[in-house]
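Appendix C. Worked example: Nicotinamidase
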Amino acid sequence: MKKALIIVDVQNDFCEGGALAVPGANEIIPYINLLMEENEYDQIVLTQDWHPADHKSFASNNGKKVGESIILNGVPQFMWPDHCVQGTFGAEFHKDLNRDKVTHIVQKGKNPEIDSYSGFQDNNHFMKTGLDDFLKYHDIQLLEIVGLALDYCVKFTSTDAVANGYVTCLHFNGTRAVNVKPDNGRDAIYEMIQKGVTVLG
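Step 2, the predicted output written as structure tokens:
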């Protein structure tokens, strides 16, 4: 069975000191590097939040405060601080992440009208990113997933992986949660298990 490692959004804005820093984010980078060193993956894919400056998920573009919600194209949208803007330092991958073995990069969130948490598709399920096509082209059947953040982009990437027919495993030690609400990370784990994701300790 061919397997791929999907590394979700290990970018400066989600790491320590970033515009949308995930608590403990930097702690997962050595773990992810070790996975790549100790395992043979057929493909290693990075996903990258890659927002235009006028993205509608940014509170600043809606006259809202961070943490408020709006309805964006028919779906609820949490208002985030500006983050991972195309071409900025915040959008770059963290310097400590070893990218020597990376075979593919998928950029998401490029449409200013729709947010995109999943590495597979936008939140409205209108547009695919090409990740599924890439994996199927390379006969990948098993996905191992790590990255940021557990309760958003990692969760949706993992559940979409199951929905697309992949055997899907999440490395618990390779992810951290935003935890806008204290139980969000825990709830994300339960939701993923219910949808068929295997959580590795």
